[in-house]
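FIELD: query
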Amino acid sequence: MTKSGIVQKDRQILTLRGLNFWLYAVQAVIAPFLPLYFADKGYTSSQIGLLMMIGPFAASLVQPFWGYISDRFRTVKLLIGLLWIMTVVSGFALFHAHTYALTLVFVLSLYFFFQPSTPLLDSISSRSAARRGASYGSLRLFGSIGYTAISLSAGFLLARMGGISHLSTLFMAAWIVPLILLFFLRDEPSEGEGINLKAFKELILNKSFLWFLLLVFILSVPHRMNDVMLGLYMKDLGASDAMVGWAWALAAAAEIPAFALLGKYLHKVHEFALIGLVAFIYTLRWLMYYVSDDPWVLLLLQAGACITFAVFWLTCMHYVARTLPPQLIATGISLLSMVYLGLAGVSGGIIGGRLSDAFGGASMYLFAVIVSFIAGFLFLGTHMKRRRQERRL
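FIELD: result
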């Protein structure tokens, strides 16, 4: 390999580390603090739940389209650039909306463009890492670092700027670096022929893959509900805006070791069995959320993300990359993200908002306990059934 080739490859990895850092830094501005911004404007829990989930749901419906376009034309860079520019425009409009109807329209637009960029960055990160003998997790961990850094500092920065009403300034500032870094990203086209409509049809009719997505949906609903409603629940229990930020910072920081280390060993595990075990750990985690009414305890429980979300997401990504041909990986990841971010997101947001309004915030976590236990049973049951079938062959 030439010296210039080594420099190019190192620059690609460095660029992807930076892009992962800043993409999730932007998410750290949106996920914990946008619900608080809406609450400051006087919206109810149900209204906020709808606002936070209608965008991801609508974006999920077109997310496979972006994955298909990426696989079809073998480009990620141009698509991400287009999506991010439109995200910035949508964010500017959102923070200047003065009615609930306009807020709904622009939050829909924001997620419509922002959400599809995550699986696209995941796909190029996975492909770039694999070609260099690295793991996807070694790049994705920089996303958790970015999320941690902004979550820790955002509450302090907002306080210095005058409160949650100045969230728009933080949001706009967070986009400066990633848009610059994007110029240094190189596309990594997949090997073999590009995807066509026949291959796409076969993918969406693949019963085994669809069953996997259904189980992911069931397990993801409680997690996505917590993503939307935890900040509001903690505020109801007396937490400050800074504490909400710290809770999400702790969750992201706890994920870093898992993303750094687990990718090296995933080839040795059975994905359905591991996710099933994770689902039962989720069950215990949500049970502790249910029995506690101390915001500091809820903050500390966010550390459970290291053995729930991090392991769950890495294992799902590994399953998609292992079972799908290279030319379908971006589309497969988009479908996975559609289920996790979109379908499970809107379900979790609506269910969480209605349970919180009707029965109090703790009721959300009782629901989460039940659903996570069911998901664990189904994942492990599917694993055992497949193992029996393999032994018969």
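FIELD: remark
Residues 1-8 have pLDDT under 50 and may be disordered.
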